Amino acid sequence: MIVPFFGELFLYPIPLELSHNYCSNKCAYCFANLNNPNRKAESGKVANQLKKFNQKDDLTSLLLQNGAAICISNKTDPFAVSNYRFAIPEIRTMIELGIPIAYHTRGGKPFDQFYKETDIPKSLFYISICQTDEEIRKRVEPGATSIARRWEMAQFLIRDGHQVVIGLNPYVHEWNKAETFIQNVIQAGVKNVIIQPIHLNSEQIRNMSAAEMEAMGTTVLENAKKRESPYYYGVQALVDRLLSLGINAYDTQHFNSSNIMEAWHTGLQGKTFKTIYDFYHWCLKHKKDNDPVYFEEFYEFMKPSFLDEEKPYTLYQYITSLDRRYRKTQQSGMSIKHKMTFRELCLNIWNDNEGAKNISRSEKFAMVGELENKVLSLEADENENLIYAFSNKGFDFRLVNPKNVNYD
Ligand code: SF4
């Protein structure tokens, strides 16, 4: 089914997502295969959605009517052997309907064939390349395309005018020679790279087969469970190297002066949602260190990509999908309306300082207030919306004293 990309609001710029079957690329670390090995493509339902979305008023249909882009896919590779028979006809229909698509793929023969036979509008391609050694790749991604073929693919897509983002995701030091990776980036003409350290929880590791565990190796599995894994520092060093070479590089923990989100906004002709990373870039242009940041500034920046400002929609899952407090309402005392306007949704996220999407989760923003005798008092504007402070140097803590904020 095509569904709103609930968990990624403000984090990833694509409003909708579509996934298919268990992915036969069989990456040993694949969170989607490990979490839900029985997932199935729902071709009939997708065909129905694409046929009737203009007559319907559920959130997915309204976003489609608004021209929103679809991510194919966050949980499967549409061109993997297990998926291309379902995915390609759907993609062709979407192209005919003018729906912008962000392709997440490792390529392969079905992709090559599709690319040859289809007139693809300018799009965004996210290509994961997580190793520099083909022997390691064969071990941990046994069903996927070779590394060399993926770099070739990046090169010809860029040549043909598409936006390409390379996902070194997950990053594992033992799988990567930084110099080889950088050389490949330069040779392919890649301008955008996202790097994320590997992270797996104990349950995901328990769900691995013996062969997958062996492919990953004990050291990598042990490190993957740690909150601050040793890979974390390797990621930062590589991001810094790439930035020094003029490449847009990004890891979600650390914001920097290159805005990789532009690849999505440009590649999908603006049929995207703005992210907190985009808002950080707005602040870089319009704020000085320690300036206050107000809700109305945030909302004005975010709202152009939303639906009708005045109307309520079923938006609660943008919050409940990530935040257990709103699902365990008896224990937490938290609740959320099912229907609300996008402004109300933004207000909820802005004013919930403990929320997973709160802006002060980034080190570049802090709540303004004081903690005295274990009582937290936060500064708010005349409409009782929280005030945050911005600093490109970053804050050591999520709370900054009002005396240190430039209110003049
Ligand atoms: S290609 Fe993506 S979806 Fe497929 S197995 Fe690998 S990580 Fe999972």
Report what the structure shows.
With 408 residues, this protein is of the alpha/beta class. The protein folds into 2 domains: 2-267, TIM Barrel; 276-313 and 342-404, no CATH class. The protein is built from 18 helices and 15 strands. The protein has helices at 31-35, 43-52, 59-65, 84-97, 109-117, 134-140, 147-159, 178-188, 202-206, 210-216, 218-225, 231-244, 261-267, 276-286, 295-302, 317-320, 329-332, 342-351; strands at 2-4, 16-18, 70-72, 101-105, 124-128, 163-171, 192-197, 248-250, 291-293, 313-314, 339-340, 365-372, 375-378, 388-390, 399-400. Strands 1-2-3-4-5-6-7-8 form an 8-stranded mixed β-sheet, with helices on both faces. The radius of gyration is 22 Å and the shape is globular. Residues 23, 25-27, 30, 32-33, 75-77, 80, 106, 144 line the site of iron/sulfur cluster.
